[in-house]
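Case 334 in the screening queue. Each case pairs one protein sequence with one candidate compound; here the compound is adenosine-5'-diphosphate. For every case the pipeline is the same: read the inputs, emit a complex structure as tokens, and attach any notable structural observations.

Predict complex for case 334.
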Amino acid sequence: MKIVVLMGGDSSEREVSLVSGDQVAKALTENGHEVIKIDPAATKAEQTELNQTDKHWIGIEYPDTAILPLHRGSLYTKNILIIKRLKVDAVFNALHGGKGENGIVQGMLDACEIPYSGSGRIASMIAMEKDMTKFFFESNQLPVPDGIVFTKNSKITDIPDNLGYPLIVKPNDQGSTIGLHVVEKESDLRSAIEDAFKFGSKLIIEEYIPGREITVAILGDRALSIVEIKPKHSLYDYECKYTGGMSSYEAPADIEPTLTKHIQEISLKAHHVLGCRGYSRVDLRLTEKGKPYLLEVNTNPGMTGTSLVPKSAKAENINFNDLLEQIIKNARCD
Ligand SMILES: Nc1ncnc2c1ncn2[C@@H]1O[C@H](COP(=O)(O)OP(=O)(O)O)[C@@H](O)[C@H]1O
Ligand SMILES: [Mg+2]
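Case 334 output:
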């Protein structure tokens, strides 16, 4: 197949996406495909450079918005049209966050009738908005942390007392724990809210779920092994996510079989009620008493060597190259 790997982009997860893209491109090439890497936020000269290197790396902290290729939005249209002209069989969308994961790129590819990996434009949009995700989950009897949507018009007094402390404050539409705060006491609330507003105009404020950090990869119509994440920090933050040695992982997680099955079932249902397809990764918290809470569905999850979906697949004896093969062969457009 002739495949374009879309990577980079102009979101705050750009660096992660460049690393995912390099590794996806390498594996698909090994699988015998003709692969071209395209950064939708890059100029023509930058595309050439992208295809001559695979030495991207992820910094310890999320990139300062000052170094992101801002005001590159118009390049997306040009670059998608270039893909159309290349007459590719499929696009592997390794973009994380922003336009690459929120349905915009999916919609552009739909309009050009280019099949792409993963979820379509509507599921991508819903999954990117944590408030919409929670609405779909709650209306389908799926367990979510109690909380509210906090806008610029909201008041601190709107936050129900029963949420207690610690509280989670997070932007509605970011990823990689960007702009997320665990607020231990009321006096820290205002500054956390102010910071989170730097990343979006809507926030989620919800109860903190103590317990274990788990995630479930969905491949095709199947939930794979549960992965437990044990971050060195109290939160699975940007540094723990992307710095080697800052988290340890267990796949399959040490969870008794009946509960494992239940968690896999609700994760698969979460994927389906949002209308996701192909693959995704469902993030959950699991309390000491064994009650799982769904946090979100990642429609374009990380695909680096140390990412969670490849770890989950490996626990099922599916190696990285086979995993990508299964994903790309299910590429679709609407
Ligand atoms: N309600 C919550 N209770 C406890 N921890 C949470 C809660 N919400 C988020 N977290 C922590 O923050 C991390 C990121 O939150 P998540 O909702 O998955 O957003 P994203 O990964 O898109 O930034 C989670 O993996 C978890 O460690
Ligand atoms: Mg998450």
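Case 334 observations:
- The chain has three domains: 2-118, 128-142+210-317, 147-207.
- The domain at 147-207 is CATH 3.30.1490.20 (Dna Ligase; domain 1).
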